[in-house]
Amino acid sequence: MYPKIKFIWTFSLLVSLVIILGACSNNATQGSTNAGGEATNQAQTKNNEPVQSSPAVKSELAAPVTIKHLKGEMTLKEVPKKIVVLDVQFADQMIALGVKPTGSVIAETDNGLPPYLGDKMSNIPLLGTYLEPNMEGIIALDPDLIIATDAHNKIYDDLVKIAPTIILQRTEDWQTVLLKFGQILNKPQEAQKLVNGYKQKVSDLKTALATKMKGQTVALIRPRDKMIRLQTTSHRTSQILYNDLGLTPPQMANNAKDTSVMISLEVLPELTADHMFLLQDDTNLELTTKFQESAIWKNLKSVKDNHVYSENTAQWIGYYGPIAINLIIDQIATALK
């Protein structure tokens, strides 16, 4: 009897050990699966995350900074990590300071991001045009700060529900705006360096052109709406020509009130410009070609002297950031030197 009991006890012990070992094995396998699944989920989350702004900025400000804007003032205690900009000129400002925006709109005349920025804006989500920003896209990016212009006054209340929003005057001097971005991104010295560099650059070019361009007039024109838009001395880009570089405008372009005046092709000879910068893009290419094929155009002094310089419209009047502005200076130098 005792041997039989011993056998049953031993057998039961072995069965119990098998069950325990099997359970341990299953638990270990399940643990590995969970760990692997977690790692996979983490990797997928990382790959699906929106492009973040550059880590080139310090996260903490030495002291709070207050930014004045059209809706009042905003005090920042730290550098925003995810900034959405609703005007391409602001993307230019940020990139010039070494920081990518988290998201950006495009200009109304562009099919995508401006070519002059090249791969500097690669992988940045596009959020519609500056006139019609994609609100759902902005929400999806979950920004810390939105920087918009007075063109967005009507949607300001919607924007502030998404994130703190700064509204800047779209036509505000780009150097003033750059210094504000220097404050926001904790890069005031870098911003001031860019401003100083621009002033030196235009001073050098102004000196180089002074003798050659003495007594000669320079016009900035853009064919549009079956006519020609003459940018006056009040226009922002014209001020680069006339204020910064000291070039002489045609009498017709002198206007302290309106930034442009419309003239017909028939009136164009009365402009009597020795040099003309002609702004072109896909929206006015057909009209420009039509004008250029006319006898009136071919008889213009600037045309006969080969003093008409075709430039990209959006770059010259759409992107008022330091990168675009410096390119304009380079193109003026190439044309007039």
From TrEMBL:
Q: Which PROSITE patterns match?
A: FE_B12_PBP (PS50983), PROKAR_LIPOPROTEIN (PS51257)
Q: Where is the Fe/B12 periplasmic-binding domain?
A: 82-337
Q: Where is the secretion signal located?
A: 1-28
> Which GO CC terms are listed, alphabetically?
outer membrane-bounded periplasmic space
SUPFAM superfamilies linked: Helical backbone' metal receptor
Q: Which Pfam families match?
A: Peripla_BP_2 (PF01497)
Polar residues: bias regions? 30-56
Q: What is its main location?
A: other
UniProt subcellular location: Cell envelope
Q: Which UniProt keywords apply?
A: Signal, Transport
Superkingdom to which the source organism belongs: Bacteria
Q: Which family does it belong to?
A: Belongs to the bacterial solute-binding protein 8 family.
Q: What is the protein named?
A: ABC transporter substrate-binding protein
**Which organism does this sequence originate in?**
Paenibacillus silvestris
User: What is the organism lineage in this UniProt record?
Assistant: Bacteria, Bacillati, Bacillota, Bacilli, Bacillales
